[in-house]
Every structure is written in C-alpha cells, then in structure tokens.
Amino acid sequence: MKISTQFDAGSVIVTDLTDPSNIRLKIRADNASEFAQWFYFRLQGAAYQNCVMHFENAAEAAYPAGWEEYQAVASYDRQNWFRVPTRYENGVLTIEHTPLSNSVYYAYFEPYSYEQHLNLLGEAQGSGLCQIDDLGSTIQGRDINLLTIGNQAASDLKIWITARQHPGETMAEWFIEGFLGRLLDPQDPTARTLLDRATFYIVPNMNPDGSVLGNLRTNAAGANLNREWLEPTVEYSPEVYYVREKMQQTGVDMFLDIHGDEAIPFVFVAGTEGVPSYNERIANLESQFKEALATASPDFQDEYGYDKDAPGQANLSMATAWVGENFKCLAYTLEMPFKDNNNLPDDDFGWNGQRSLRLGEAMLSAVLAVLPKLR
C-alpha cells in the first residue's frame, strides 16, 4: 500500500500504513498556521481490501463539531465523488471503505483544483462577455484575477462577488462556476436583464496559494483573509489588499462573499446587522433577498445559521461587515455545508460540487429580485 499527497491541495500525515484494517493518519495543519481540517490523499494498492483509516488527531481540528454526522468523499477518477462511511468516536475520525480499484482518492470535500480555476477563467473570457484583469500577485506569485462582466457604464449597479477566502471551502468556487455559467449564457433572460443594468466584479478564488497548498483557512503567510479587511497589507494579505483597492475604485452596490461551514448542515446567509450604519433600508433589502433566494432554490433556508451580531458589534475585519459598512450596501456572507443539507439530504453525495454549482445558478434570480432596490 502507498499513500501520496504530492498533487494540488494534497494533504495528510501518514503514521502507520502496515495494516489496511488499521491505517493511522493525522490531519496536517495549514502551512503557516494551526488551522487543521482539510485532507486530500491518494491510496494505492488496496483494491478489494477493507480499509479502515483512523485520523488520530481529529479532536484537535479547527472545528471538531464538523466531524459529527460527517461523511468523507472518495473518487477513483477525481471527477465523480461520492460519500463513504465515516464516524467520529473518542476524538478519532474513522473512514471505512473497500476500494474497488487499486487507486482511490479521499478528501474532506470535493476538490476544486488550480487547473480547474484557470480553465474557468479561460472559459469565462471565451464567452466574449468577460474581461479578465490582474489585480496583483499572491505571496507565492500566483495571479489575483478579477472577472468583469457587463457594460461598465457609470450608471450600472456594481455587484461584487468574492469566493474562497478560505481555500478549503472549495464549494465556493463550484458556486462561482454555476453563477458564471448562467450569467454568461446569452440565451438566459435573467442574465441578459441583469447585464443591462449591472456590472459584475467576480473574484472566483481569493486564496490561490492556500488552495494549492491544501490549507483550510489561510494564505501562504498564515493570514486568515476574512479577518484582514480593516488593515490588509501587501506583505501579509495581498489578496485582500488588492481586491479592496479595486472595490474603492469601482464602488459597491451589492456584495456576496461565498463560503462553506464545517459544522452547520444547511445553506444560510449572514448579514450586516451589527455594523454601525445598519438601518431599515438594508434590513428590508435583506428580507427581500432571502425571500427571493428561497424561492429560487429550495436548498436555501433562514431558520438555521449564525447568531446575529448585536447592534454596533460586527467584526469589521470581516469582508461582509467591512464592505457593508463602507459602501452602505446590501452585503451577505453565503455559507454552504461540508456535510449535507439536512432539508434535502442525499445519502450518496451529500452536499457536493454540483449542488453548489446549481445554487450559483439560482443566485442570479435572487440578485435580479432586489436589483431595483439596491440604490
């Protein structure tokens, strides 16, 4: 048997590989911080053997509650991912699976590779409706790319969407793929109506370094980008620094920050009720948006989610709070589950890339519903 991780986002520590029924592993922390939860590895040479893989340090993960009722994903071809029996007992996460081939991959969630990211950019540009701009470079020299879609007229509403500030939340870029696919469809009436009135500024991957490194939450320097929005620096958080700079040039009428949540098995949003400028206009916009999204996608709900911030108590170092406060606009963090959506469970696949993509498609309808009220 052999376990390997020398590929994009690969990450695990092997402790003992002598017995397929007692494989001992550890979850590796982010390259420059202590956040640990993401894993992605290839197992070879174990076809038709009952493999029992124990993650010995699962209790030390960033979000131990994320293991409760969680099922890992596996794939033979890295295209089709399915859930495999997983349990969490006495601080140890255990995957039990009998692979049907000599090569199989296991991951925390369905990956979205850097190659897929580059292909997504190329396909978007190839539509003829999208302009790609380079805002700057990451710590490790990767490109921070912005997609601009629309007429860029001064009168256009400015809709900003960022995704994957936390690189292990790969569902966020799957969401963007779905959103772009529909927005760039010249035969889609919702997309055409939106682009008549709005210009979209989309960052499909805010954290390319962390994505390639197999990090859960941080960039190559150890920065949690969603805590950098008050005072980002080129040295520590260039990804936020350059995106924030561009936002200040264009203005923002609506902002969506796309994420995944380890513990909560639902799709939900978190708004700006805690920022100093929050008012009745924004509260009404939030209500209209949530109602429209629930109509567009039964995967969305508003019963379960984060506790709301008390007035004036928002953390302005977070993207949604900073943008909402500085631009006095509708701003939301969208969270998707790593587990499954308990309202529409799927035993074979759980929440996955395709469901994230479909939610991205549905989001256009929700944006269109609130468009007339954004200013």
TrEMBL record:
<feature type="active site" description="Proton donor/acceptor">
    <location>
        <position position="335"/>
    </location>
</feature>
<dbReference type="GO" id="GO:0006508">
    <property type="term" value="P:proteolysis"/>
</dbReference>
<dbReference type="Pfam" id="PF18027">
    <property type="entry name" value="Pepdidase_M14_N"/>
</dbReference>
<dbReference type="Pfam" id="PF00246">
    <property type="entry name" value="Peptidase_M14"/>
</dbReference>
<comment type="similarity">
    <text>Belongs to the peptidase M14 family.</text>
</comment>
<dbReference type="GO" id="GO:0004181">
    <property type="term" value="F:metallocarboxypeptidase activity"/>
</dbReference>
<dbReference type="InterPro" id="IPR050821">
    <property type="entry name" value="Cytosolic_carboxypeptidase"/>
</dbReference>
<feature type="domain" description="Peptidase M14">
    <location>
        <begin position="110"/>
        <end position="374"/>
    </location>
</feature>
<keyword id="KW-0378">Hydrolase</keyword>
<keyword id="KW-0645">Protease</keyword>
<dbReference type="InterPro" id="IPR040626">
    <property type="entry name" value="Pepdidase_M14_N"/>
</dbReference>
<dbReference type="InterPro" id="IPR000834">
    <property type="entry name" value="Peptidase_M14"/>
</dbReference>
<dbReference type="GO" id="GO:0008270">
    <property type="term" value="F:zinc ion binding"/>
</dbReference>
<keyword id="KW-0121">Carboxypeptidase</keyword>
<protein>
    <submittedName>
        <fullName>Carboxypeptidase</fullName>
    </submittedName>
</protein>
